[in-house]
Specification:
alpha+beta; three-stranded antiparallel sheet; about 45% helix; membrane; transmembrane; transmembrane helix
């Protein structure tokens, strides 16, 4: 399935480039070719990265991020190959899609055309952006430092009940009784109206963080910002219980 979404990213990026006419005849509102290449580069990996971050939580590995590089390369090479076969070049070096001047492929080899343009820099910068956006929302394992942890929302807590909830969740988590822990979480969700569409943020939220490669597990709490309040380190995840590999 990851291969399917990778192919989808490549197809959409090529389709967007063809519709846009990059860089031969801009038709979709891009003011500069570089801007267009950045956008097309973004689409060349977006669906692949979205899939592995959203659906491969239980089998995610760091090395899968590198697969975006060949996807971007395939997209860029395909786009340039299409342009290479339909473009014309004037004596002053202007490349366009009108039948004026010599065909581009009669004047330069595809390899030179592929490696020469500066558009490739903007394309590959755009292809990296989805990875940075999505990784910024994930947590690297505190134990092995090699993979991202799967995050499971447990329940919400008020500021008045927070310390009591910490003690309760620690007691149930360390018992190693999976069913008992699940029942406790289910009860807490019901008490804190977990399933309602309440728009106001709770004071705290508890999460279960799991690293599948090294089997480390953590219970973390997160304090939410009040409306208009500037984020600080105090608002980050706070580990309240852990079962690490070395334990």
């Amino acid at each position: 399935m990851a291969l399917y979404f990778g192919a989808l990213s490549v197809f959409i990026s090529v389709l967007v480039a063809v519709i846009a006419g990059l860089p031969l005849n801009l038709t979709v509102g891009f003011k500069f070719p570089y801007e267009g290449y950045f956008v097309v580069g973004f689409t060349s990996t977006f669906f692949y990265y979205l899939y592995i971050f959203k659906y491969l939580k239980s089998s995610f590995s760091y090395y899968k991020l590198l697969n975006g590089i060949p996807l971007a390369a395939i997209s860029f090479a395909t786009i340039m190959f299409i342009q290479y076969n339909i473009a014309y070049i004037t004596k002053d070096g202007f490349i366009h899609n009108l039948p004026i001047g010599d065909t581009l492929k009669s004047q330069v080899t595809f390899l030179n055309y592929l490696l020469f343009p500066q558009e490739g820099i903007f394309f590959f910068l755009g292809s990296l952006l989805p990875m940075f956006i999505l990784t910024s929302r994930r947590i690297i394992c505190y134990q092995c430092k090699k993979s991202f942890m799967e995050e499971r929302l447990l329940f919400n807590s008020s500021i008045d009940d927070y310390l009591k909830d910490v003690q309760q969740v620690q007691a149930h988590f360390y018992k190693d009784e999976i069913n008992e822990f699940a029942e406790f979480i289910k009860e807490k969700r019901m008490l804190t109206k977990f399933n309602t569409k309440k728009r106001n943020l709770p004071d705290y939220t508890f999460y279960h963080l799991i690293c599948n490669p090294c089997n480390s597990q953590y219970i973390a709490s997160k304090k939410h910002n009040d409306i208009g309040e500037q984020p600080t380190e105090e608002k980050a995840y706070k580990i309240v219980a852990r079962k690490a590999l070395s334990d």
